[in-house]
Design brief:
Elements (H helix, E strand, L loop, with lengths): L1 H7 L1 H77 L3 H13 L2 H14 L24
Helix pairs in contact: 2-3
Length: 142
């Protein structure tokens, strides 16, 4: 009963009503804060997505560089063997063969696959910077 009287008491109602604008301000601030948090979350997700894309591109670039280095090693070994055999320097040829055998087997297999893939595509005109030919490896057009 006492509680009902306090709710109907005019000064109590006026006091509650005077606090109402403060609640509306707090609600407006809360909505604004929620909007800022949503914007920040979306921005963070976009930045994170870009970082993942850059990381993937970086990894692919490192793989391409490693592949190019491996192919250059393979070419160096093959050229070295041919030069050593022409000069009848069998120890040097053996050293190049040993280095060739120590190369990662996937490099040799990928190089072989690259040679085989050429036979499936029509021959196109190539310049010196377009590709280089490994001496001693079968070509698609031979």
């Amino acid at each position: 009963m006492e509680r009902i009287r306090s709710l109907t008491d005019l000064p109590e109602l006026e006091a509650a009503y005077s606090r109402l604008p403060n609640l509306q301000l707090i609600e407006g601030d809360a909505r604004q804060l929620a909007g800022m948090i949503t914007f920040t979350c979306n921005l963070a997700e976009n930045v994170s997505s870009k970082v993942r894309q850059l990381d993937l591109a970086k990894n692919r670039l490192y793989q391409a560089i490693q592949r190019a280095d491996d192919i250059l090693d393979l070419k160096f070994c093959m050229d070295g063997v041919q030069t050593a055999l022409r000069n009848e320097d069998y120890e040097q040829a053996a050293a190049h063969i040993h280095r060739y055998l120590s190369l990662d087997k996937s490099v040799i297999e990928l190089s072989r696959q690259g040679q085989e893939a050429r036979s499936f595509f029509p021959k196109r005109q190539q310049n010196k910077t377009d590709s280089f030919q490994f001496h001693g490896c079968p070509q698609g057009d031979e």
